[in-house]
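Lesson 9: reading folded outputs for more than one chain in a single document. The general rule is that every protein is listed as its sequence immediately followed by its structure tokens, and records are never interleaved. Here is the first one.
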Amino acid sequence: MKLHVLSAAIVSLFAMTQVQSALEPGQKAAVKFKPQLKLSNTCHPYAAVDAHGYISGGLNSELHIRNNCGGSDLGAQIYARSAWHSDVWATVYAWYFPKNSNNGGGPRSLWMYAIIWVGGPGVGAPEVVGATLKTDDDTEKHAPVDADYIDGTSFECKFTYNFWTTKAKLTATKKTGGYQDLITWEQLPEVARTGLAGYADMPLLNGTFEELLTNGWPF
């Protein structure tokens, strides 16, 4: 594990979304169904690891979110890993936040995730048929998915903090959010995947990823 970056802001890895011809079918699906993220008085998502495997050290837990947590000129990142699960194509999308509180206190780092379930054989044209969102203590599951939560092919998520605690959550929203540069697990250099193992709650790690699919099944 490498934990040398004391700042929250590190350079995001090259976004393969810009070269569609180089993508495998599963990676194209990850791009097509990438969720939107609406922020509500929260820290912004950041890149968690660079091409050399160095991971972000997060932000001082005593700092308010207005201090150095409003986004980085170096780029934001969304990470994705996909697999078939009971004949449904599932992609876990993960965001890294360098602070887990809207005020003083709380952990320095936080991972949030959304599982987007896309219909497989027999469904016709691929579409979002389910969504599982990480909440403060559990998950929020949607199946079938309310059309009001879909913008094009993207499920709309909102990231919020509980004002009275240090806990954060994702919820479905009808409001348009933003996108981050996407990189899939397979596109990450091996050294970057190894670096991400330094985060105990990183959703795409071997073992954790499979467990999330099993426990997050919304049907």
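And here is the second record, again sequence then tokens.
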Amino acid sequence: MKKMKIAWIGHLYFPLDYFPPYFDFFHIPYSDPGVYNWNELVERVGFTPDIVVLADYSTPPPLVNLEEFPCLTVFYAIDTHIHSWYPFYAQGFDLCFISLKDQFAEFLNKRLSNEQVFWFPPCASLRSIPLDPDPLLPKYRAIFVGNLNPELKPRRVDFFNALKEQCPELHLQEQGSFPDLYANSDLVLNFCDHDELNFRVFEVLGCKKPLLTPLIKHGLTELFEPEKDFFGYDPGNIEETAQKIKFLLENPELCKLVAESGYNKVNESHRPQHRVKFLSEQIEKIVFNGVADSLIQKRLSSKEFIHNAYLKMLYLLLAEKSSDFIRQKAYLKAGKKY
């Protein structure tokens, strides 16, 4: 089978060797500061891509004039709860894989159709595996591991400060290896700053630990069953949350059963290999059925409309906002394309 040459820009959420062998990747990491149009991208990777994938890494867009790319283009969008410009930028792509299910409408009520947008929830990372407790590390009853900078995460910090007053058993940890910290903890808490379905849900369950997480939307209860695979709480009710932590710490057998069930669900459906399989199958289906060519032609025939309706103002605003001269120049040039 002919190899598909793929330029993957951004974060590597999955090992590339998990993909079919005829997917031939060139990776531009998220640390790369470049902004590329088509010719610049081809020069950067050293070949003409059959597919360009932009994997979200929560920075200003590294691709411009993507509405005129002559190959299949794919956007893996995760931080849609943070960046309001994502649904507009997405209109320049052929396919979008979106992490947060309840934000579909924002992507669909423009140019993209239902057949071009897919729900692509987070998954457990390769590090999310059960470990034996380390006797050399501290033991914790309940733990939260994550950023606790009050300037960046004010809602989170306020919540945990208030909760800790009623629940002194709770340990808050900003840094460290989460699999090791979870292994030495009886209960792991999650917090969703924007009521999003985040990776921590899958990481905790993948480590086979009992999870206490906010009862949010975005498909959480479609993937996992409350009180069977995880425990839920209302972040608006500190007292009730503290009481639930106390109850769970007093019932280790219940926690063990729920952790086991959540772990089994992750192993069945929410490891990197499952996401790679879904992503690969959708791309293969579209490419091998000839749909990719029609999507590309449809986009190219509407490139001026796409630019003017969805991308022009975005590029101009980014140019005005950017303090990086190279990015500023690239966005300004892209904004004045037509």
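What the second record shows: DSSP finds 13 helices and eleven strands in the chain.
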